[in-house]
Write a structure and sequence with these properties.
Elements lengths: L2 H6 L4 E4 L5 H8 L26 E12 L2 E10 L2 E11 L5 E6 L2 H15 L22 E6 L2 E6 L14 H12 L15 H14 L4 E10 L2 E9 L2 E8 L14 E8 L3 H9 L8 H10 L3 H14 L3 H10 L12 H11 L14 H27 L2
Antiparallel strand pairs: 1-2, 2-3, 3-4, 4-5, 6-7, 8-9, 9-10, 10-11
Helix pairs in contact: 4-5, 6-8, 7-8, 8-9, 10-11
Amino acid sequence: MKPSEIYALPTDHSENLYWADQEMLQDVFSIDGLKGFDFDETSDGRETTEDEETDLMVRRKLHLGLDSNNWLSLHTIEFRGVPFAVVNRLATDHSGNDNDVSVTDRDTYEAARDWVLSKMNKGLDVGMLVDADQEMKLAFKGAALTSIGGQVRLLPRMHVGFHTGVAIFDKAALDAGYAKKLYPLKKDPAFAGGLSSPAAAAVAASIVADAVIADRKVIVGEFATQNCWIACFFQADGETYAATVEASGLYEKAIHWEHRVRIERVGFAPMYDLVESFHTDGRIDLGSKAATDYADAFGLTQHEANMAIGAVAKGGGDFFEAAVALIKERQPRPEGYDMDDMWIHARLLSENNKLAFYGLGRMPSVRQAVEAWESRQSMIKRDKENRDTRERQP
């Protein structure tokens, strides 16, 4: 059958540039990046319908379903009303489609190709323009741009301050300290017990503390649980942090731990005095402003505040989570505390965002806590409406 005869066949389906199969167009025009390209719509910003006429049109003349997974079709392609190519297409669910392309009009083909290329050349988005001498805010997923000792670094979010983004932990210093101070001692019998060995724990804690960039720090060097080892607490960028090691599999084993160090915010700066005095003096000043403000914020008794502060100092976790855990132990359990911790944390932060001074518990942020609690409330309301509807039905 002649191409001219195929061109003359009636069309059973038409597609313009914005709707046509881009894999077919890639095979027709051999333009890198055409397949999967996000074409803008018409010049006036209007979205087209599938068969709305544009300069480039793909016309399907014939099609046949071979089975549920394979289809044959015969297409012509025209530019500004002039047909210039025939495409014999096999489409399949099992592998790549096959497009057999024949071009009958070179001039029209090249004009069409140039037109497609012009549509792919979107030009510079003015929103991308910046002044090379002005400060720009660079946002990285899971990381932050900062400097340590005059060197610009990309650091994990947990290694930069909560407020200003200043560096609070130097992983490079940790690695260097580990290689210099601890690795050479790995065959020493006194270090065979890993972090459970007093000698190894003392050196390890000092290595972590040396990597901390902080105003104040107190070394701990103790296991909170078999899965958590506390290196130190420190105060930086207006907050209190714990440097811990995720220690599963490390107890009494001399296994590398330097890649398991975590920096976790446990509360705002005033709470540091409480954990420091716990580890230096063995006591908590429950009459201090930090302790009384903490108790007042959550409605804790002095005994509960003492227990919660001690729990943070001995076991990591944040002050928010510790307070909730103590309140849940009351008998009878208070209203609003009879649900999963995640929802309790979301509710409390939604109702009083100042509680975030003491941590976020199981919430990533106050904003996400509010969204989570609103979502739960909507779900509860919807479930109640559905139950009421069912009960009213005869």
